[in-house]
Amino acid sequence: MPVASSFNEWGLATGNWQLATDKLMTRTKILVTGGAGYIGSHAVVELYEAGYQPVIVDDFSNSQESVLAGLKAILGVAVPCYRIDCADAVALRGVFAQEPGIAGVIHFAAFKAVGESVSEPLKYYRNNVGSLLTLLTVMPEFGVKSLVFSSSCTVYGVPDQLPVTEQTPTKKATSPYGNTKQMCEDILNDTAAADASLRTILLRYFNPIGAHASARIGELPLGVPNNLVPFITQTAAGIREKLTIYGDTYATPDGTNIRDYIHVVDLAQAHVVAVQRLLEGSSAAVETFNVGTGRGNSVLEVVQTFERATGQKLNYIIGAARPGDVPAIYADVTKATRELGFQTTTSLEDSLASSWKWQQSL
Questions:
Q1: Which of 52, 124, 156, 177 is catalytic?
Q2: How does it assemble (predicted)?
Q3: What domain range is 262 assigned to?
Q4: Total domain count for the chain?
Q5: Residues 73, 216 contacting (CB under 8 angstroms)
Q6: 3-state class of 211 per DSSP?
């Protein structure tokens, strides 16, 4: 859809100025690429509730327009949304021109399925790296110097020690997806070294789960889910016959993978804190923070916790391990707590209960 000057009932750009809301126009604008996606949509809510004006860019290749209706239901306003590929420099320039005064960017837009990246690596390099290169080219043309980058704990590869800190060496990535995140971090460090005015915060996510308390937005995979929790909820709902646990011979207490599962709203709030830090000018050229709970839970523990939290019995089997999966990883969150003042507040049980509430609402 070409860039236009106003938005329809869901917030997509249209030609009807009357539907734009004056309420948004007095706020500091933050561009959110991939803002209709799972994490991006929750960050949009938290940004708006913190007093910012989110502006979404999304090509809906991995999200659905119905998310915009959910955002409007939660916030009471239509959030401006431009349906473009943020690797398209011409279209991206159009958004910056149409939305003067953008103060910063949160860059979520990326493909994220580890298994798919193994089978379709060029798709991941073209999209994940290409979109960042385009963004870094266009931002300075409009005087935008603050960027929060959606990174991942996959940059640590298979760590030698747990938990991982921000100083844990990054090792060879176990998948093309992880490699794109390492490459993007390198690009941002090199760009910041060349442009002293650029300020970037890299947030290395662990495993987001859960949904907004309203059950208006949540994880909405297209087709067969790639992540554990939506597969759990779809199995509990009868959409999937059974859940496959990929591998039970890892060097972990119960043989299944261990991950750090963070509620998506907690994760979204970390982005608001990062934006505030950048706009206040208190950050170094590039800062890196782990964003997780600081605890690891195995796949079997997640399954059992879901059953306790919801009363739903799951049909699951053990399958072969997937290529690219790391046996165990969880975060040391000391730095984020000390320097950002950020801590998670939602338990694994409550996170899984919110995922089930979201699934029931669909």
A1: 177
A2: Homodimer.
A3: 6-361
A4: 1
A5: yes
A6: coil
